[in-house]
Amino acid sequence: MRRALCLGSNGPNIESKLKFAVRDAHRLSRILKDKCDFDDVRRLKGGRDPFDLQREIAVAASELKKNDTLLFYFSGHGVVEGGRLYLLLAGTQLESMLATALPASAILDAMKECKANQRILILDCCNAGLVMRETGLKAGEQDRYLQNDLGFQSDAFDIILASEFLEKTKELPTLKSSALCEGIVSCLEAPMTTSDFDGDGAISTDDLMRWVEAFVSKLNIEDSTSGAGIPIPKRNGYSRGLNYITKPPKPKPQWQQVRINGSNEHRLIVLPIALGNSQELIVVSEAPTTVEQYKKFVDNVGHRRPMAKLFENGKWQGEIDVFADPHFGDPRNPIVGVDLGDAEAYCTWLSNRSKDANGDFRQYILPMPDILDYAELRSFPRFQTTNFDFEPPACGNLSFPLPILEAKRSALGLYSVSGNIWQWTAGFETWWDRLQTAGVKVEVKIVFGPYTEIFDQPEDELILYGGSFYDLETSDRKTFSVRSLTQQKGTRQADLGFRVCTTVAMKDLRDLDKNLEECVERKFQLGFYNEDSSATVGNLGEVVSVNWNDRPMWSFTSS
Fold first, then answer.
1. CATH code assigned at 494
2. Strand 422-424 vs strand 463-465: parallel, antiparallel, or unpaired?
3. What is the side-by-side order of every strand in the sheet holding 524-527?
4. Is 320 part of any domain?
5. CA-to-CA distance for 380 and 25, rounded, in angstroms?
């Protein structure tokens, strides 16, 4: 059972009486039933006695079972009285709030007792953030509280707030709606290809919040002269798994590890990521390039030998010949002491070696940082940012890198994705031709306050990824900017190497079960590493402005 309770109240006859709150509740209830597969959508009337409303809400919540969903939406006035948040009804008397208004805590109590695994509370009112204080917890901009702290036992509980405590939201006469309601409705009415950011075929609260935050930000940019802007909606609560506004997607089959053999004895791991709607999957080498593999390249083309600076006595100094050093030159070790040009030259050589009888070849390039994120975590983290202000840490935890097969291995089967050595990665420019070949169209919109610039191929920030054997085990730093290095692209250090990346056509994967194609991620989102913290999402020419923790996002889909 998927049940929604929608309550809209324009409030009592006071000077600030609202015009569109009842309409907002009606619009949301309609779209939840028509487009989101809610079985039971109830429109609660704001003119009723508050105690009758509390009873109806409590009964409706208590009837649900473990695998059910409960959504509650309120649109109207939220007023603070005696340290509590009250939701104003048509018959509310301001001098008698306790007896004539609906306390927000009553809704929290009903949801607390509800057995449904999926719960969503949406408060579209002023001072909405006070509801978090009523749980006894501090509400912050990005807080996601443990459900046990909240007293909730559900697998997923989300609280979406139109405003923080002591923050005022407002109706928009031009839209005849509140900003939050209009954002939610526009997300649910939009084509799935534009609002389903993670590409799983359904709209989760993650998708919804990305859309709504972008929508309200855009409203503030367009109306920057009107004084106080509209508060950016916030989300609190906890999700063990995703909470879905639309009907949840069908479970995908388990992706099985697929390995293929590459040039120069590289073992390649196939990732369940497609370039847009193409039939090409991204493939990453199982391990960083080894000393043995790199030596074949040097001997074959006469490329310069790897020379590496060591970190000693708190600074980078000296230089070793990696091939000749008894510790770093073990053939099983990852190659180090190579700069970006060396890594790219190796990729070009590797690509040329892979030519078949028809002259076709597999193009090897360096992976982008987000691909390595996915290879390690099987997700595209949206929160990872880059610090441009200091050198990478080198804390003397180990003296040498581990042989490849002794290093940490990710769930998808890759060695040394993080830890052991830092790795060169590719910027967007490197991937540009590869994306175009696969039929992937990218349009990017960068917003600087009220100014907008659209361009096809922006400059990108080069990133090192992974962590080093020099670092402390407790270090959680996985990326930093190449600009922070003294030699930048020409840096050759004892803890800096690379791995290779390419693509493979699904039809060429004999071991790939057809059912596993359902596992493939087809909406490929990559981080755009740049100093500018303004926003960007491009999707088939339809651009949404979004800012996620100072890390703009690309969205690639097939044209």
1. 3.90.1580
2. antiparallel
3. 440-441, 553-558, 524-527
4. yes
5. 34
Phi/psi class of residue 408: alpha, beta or left (left: φ > 0; alpha: ψ in -120 to 50)?
A: beta
Q: DSSP 3-state assignment of 237?
A: strand
pLDDT of residue 135: 52
Contact 134, 84 (CB under 8 A): yes
CA dist., res. 32 & res. 184, Å (int) = 10
Residue 296, C-beta contacts closer than 8 angstroms, at least 6 positions apart: 264
How far is 290 from 332, CA to CA, in rounded Å? 6
Compute how many other C-beta atoms are within 10 angstroms of the C-beta atom of residue 86. 26
Q: Are 155 and 117 in contact (CB under 8 A)?
A: yes
Q: Where are the beta strands (DSSP E) in 82-132?
A: 84-87, 102-103, 118-124
What's the token pair of residue 217?
A: 């930000």
- Give the whole-angstrom CA distance, residue 297 versus residue 391: 30
Q: Are residues 37 and 151 in the same domain?
A: yes
In a domain, 208, yes or no: no
Please report whether residue 247 resides in a domain: no
* Alpha carbon distance 348, 435 (integer Å): 18
Rounded to 10 deg, the angle between the 21-35 and 179-189 helix axes is 20
DSSP at 265: G
Q: Which two tokens stand for residue 400?
A: 């040498």
* Residue 506 one-letter amino acid: M
Q: Say whether both 388 and 269 belong to one domain.
A: yes
Domain containing residue 36: 2-168+232-239
Residues 163 and 270 in one domain: no
Q: Which amino acid is at 185?
A: V
| φ and ψ of 217, to 5 deg | -60, -40
Q: Is residue 408 situated within a structural domain?
A: yes
269: β partners? 259, 284
Residue tagged 């691909």 (tokens)? 371
What's the pLDDT tens digit per position in 380-405?
443 333 332 223 333 345 677 777 77
Q: Do residues 402 and 329 make contact, with C-beta atoms less than 8 angstroms apart?
A: no
What's the CATH number where 142 sits? 3.40.50.1460
Q: Identify the top-confidence range among 46-55, 311-320, 451-460.
A: 46-55
pLDDT tens digit sequence for 166-202: 788 888 888 899 999 999 999 999 988 788 877 778 9
Q: Based on the structure, what is the number of domains in the chain?
A: 2
For 305, phi then psi, to 5°, come to -75, 150
Hey, which residues does 290 pair with through a beta bridge?
Answer: 334
Same domain for 285 and 415, yes or no, is yes
Q: Going along 256-299, which residue ranges are E strands? A: 259-261, 267-274, 280-285
pLDDT at 454 over 90: no
283 and 412: one domain? yes
Q: Give the pLDDT of residue 62.
A: 94
- Provide the pLDDT for residue 558: 33
Strand order in the sheet with 267-274: 259-261, 267-274, 280-285, 501-505
Among 239, 269, 290, the domain boundary falls at 239
Q: Does residue 137 sit in the same domain as residue 278?
A: no
One domain for residues 292 and 158: no
Tell me the H-state helices in 409-452.
428-437
Of 206, 239, 272, which one is at a domain's C-terminal end?
A: 239
